[in-house]
Amino acid sequence: MTDVARLAGVSHQTVSRVLNDHPNVKEQTRNRVRAAIAELNYRPNRAARALVTGRSQLIGVVARNSTLYGPASMLTEFEQAAADAGFAVSVGSVRELDRSTISAVVDRHLDQRVAGLVVIANVASAAEALAEIPSDVPVVFIDGDPAGGRPVVTVDQVAGARAATRHLLDAGHETVWHVSGPTDWFDSAGRIQGWRQTLEEAGAEVPPLLSADWSAAEGYRAGQMLARMPEVTAIFTANDHLALGILRALWERGRRVPHDVSLVGFDDVPEAAFFIPPLTTVRQAFGDVARAALSLLLGQMRDEPGTADHIVVPPQLVVRESVGRPLSSAG
């Protein structure tokens, strides 16, 4: 670092500020330091920096040990976003987001002197444990509780569910049935809210909610009941795997999608375009969420004023062939 400072004609402290991306450095000076770094092929000693700052170029992530598409995709996207910004990621996977488990993995991260924490906290039961994270630790929650008092980045689940339900109503269906995910998940609760709000605003009947988990097997069980009900012409599911199970149950009962029943999922898993028929669904921008969470975390680490507390990322309705007009209005 001394050689960089000498070549750039600046102080040792200025080089350190540039390396840590401190905002209080003139752009001309910053460019001169970066040029010296490139010329000397300088690589910062991260161990030494950790000893000085008390923190490393390491971000701790607390995530549920899950192969579900949403949480797994979110974790992958965050790891990539952190790597692009020059940070390594230490993932603490937990089976349950309860107090003792979360506390243990948070303590392990803090012992590693992580620069900050990102918690993929998608269930309400995690709130008590997460409230105990020390206030001086930079932390961002993904899919957490907006009312929890710490920075949160979420996909607008309500808007996604509204778009899905509205699309089915606009196709001519009198109402829309919903098969939800676990009701203690924030994602699931938001999708239920958006579905119900849209039906109520349209003056449509709100059918009984069918609660499930996130699996195709649960979708199949719900679908077996729905397939026996001729009044069911439109179904919105909380994820694409539930929709897959429902497709199977409808097919077994001779009810065709979209001729007899229209179906919309949520997530846009890579296989959704290859279902029979291809599934209309709601795509979550996991990459945008990951980058927004990293930006919030870096803002805290740099003590930047005006850092947002809650960022909501809009989803996108992906229209495919699984939605049609009901037979009674198809002409």
TrEMBL record:
GO terms for molecular function: DNA-binding transcription factor activity; transcription cis-regulatory region binding. It comes from the Bacteria. SUPFAM superfamilies: lambda repressor-like DNA-binding domains, Periplasmic binding protein-like I. Residues 1-53 form the HTH lacI-type domain. Keywords: DNA-binding, Transcription, Transcription regulation. This is Putative LacI-family transcriptional regulator. It comes from Actinoplanes missouriensis (strain ATCC 14538 / DSM 43046 / CBS 188.64 / JCM 3121 / NBRC 102363 / NCIMB 12654 / NRRL B-3342 / UNCC 431).
